[in-house]
Amino acid sequence: MLKATVYVTIKQSVLDPQGVAVQGALHSMGFDEVSKVRVGKYLELELGTSDRAEAERRVKAMCEKLLANTVIEDYRYELI
Amino acid sequence: MLKATVYVTIKQSVLDPQGVAVQGALHSMGFDEVSKVRVGKYLELELGTSDRAEAERRVKAMCEKLLANTVIEDYRYELI
């Protein structure tokens, strides 16, 4: 069975308020060396298939249709 | 300057309601091959330091104190 790891990140040109909040919190805790924070999602999917090409095609469709909002987010995935 | 990539995942023994919801949504869209979904966080931190050992120590402290709730979450990080 294959496992897919999906990373969804906010595009560089889009403001990331969650990242700004985390950076602020880190600064207030004394971690002043942090100059930028971007927060994204990380998903692990277990797939009931072992056809690699098919899985690749299906995971791409899942990302496009549900897992990522491609207007403001980028995604990448790995099959293990 | 170093960059840290932090992955925060819910421990295997802890229920992941967000993952269950994503799995349900994928099933309702016809992606029936997905047998399990776990959702985590993915953070990119830009650090204003190039001392690798120091950065390692500091990022570990950030994870322990803010980025991960170690009662229910695991974390791992990479320095680039």
UniProtKB/TrEMBL annotation, chains A, B:
Reaction catalyzed: N(2)-formyl-N(1)-(5-phospho-beta-D-ribosyl)glycinamide + L-glutamine + ATP + H2O = 2-formamido-N(1)-(5-O-phospho-beta-D-ribosyl)acetamidine + L-glutamate + ADP + phosphate + H(+)
Xref: Gene3D superfamilies: Phosphoribosylformylglycinamidine synthase subunit PurS (3.30.1280.10)
One GO molecular-function entry: ATP binding
Main localization of the protein described in the UniProt heading: cytoplasm
BP GO annotations: 'de novo' IMP biosynthetic process
EC top class, as a word: ligase
Pathway: Purine metabolism; IMP biosynthesis via de novo pathway; 5-amino-1-(5-phospho-D-ribosyl)imidazole from N(2)-formyl-N(1)-(5-phospho-D-ribosyl)glycinamide: step 1/2
EC number, UniProt record: 6.3.5.3
Subcellular location: Cytoplasm
InterPro entries in the cross-refs: PurS (IPR003850), PurS-like_sf (IPR036604)
Gene Ontology cellular component terms for the protein in this record: cytoplasm
A Pfam family reported for this protein in Swiss-Prot or TrEMBL: PurS
Keyword tags: ATP-binding, Cytoplasm, Ligase, Nucleotide-binding, Purine biosynthesis
Recorded family membership: Belongs to the PurS family.
PANTHER family the record matches: PHOSPHORIBOSYLFORMYLGLYCINAMIDINE SYNTHASE SUBUNIT PURS (PTHR34696:SF1)
Subunit relationships: Part of the FGAM synthase complex composed of 1 PurL, 1 PurQ and 2 PurS subunits.
Described purpose of this protein according to its UniProt entry: Part of the phosphoribosylformylglycinamidine synthase complex involved in the purines biosynthetic pathway. Catalyzes the ATP-dependent conversion of formylglycinamide ribonucleotide (FGAR) and glutamine to yield formylglycinamidine ribonucleotide (FGAM) and glutamate. The FGAM synthase complex is composed of three subunits. PurQ produces an ammonia molecule by converting glutamine to glutamate. PurL transfers the ammonia molecule to FGAR to form FGAM in an ATP-dependent manner.
Protein name as it appears in the record: Phosphoribosylformylglycinamidine synthase subunit PurS
Species name: Paenibacillus piri
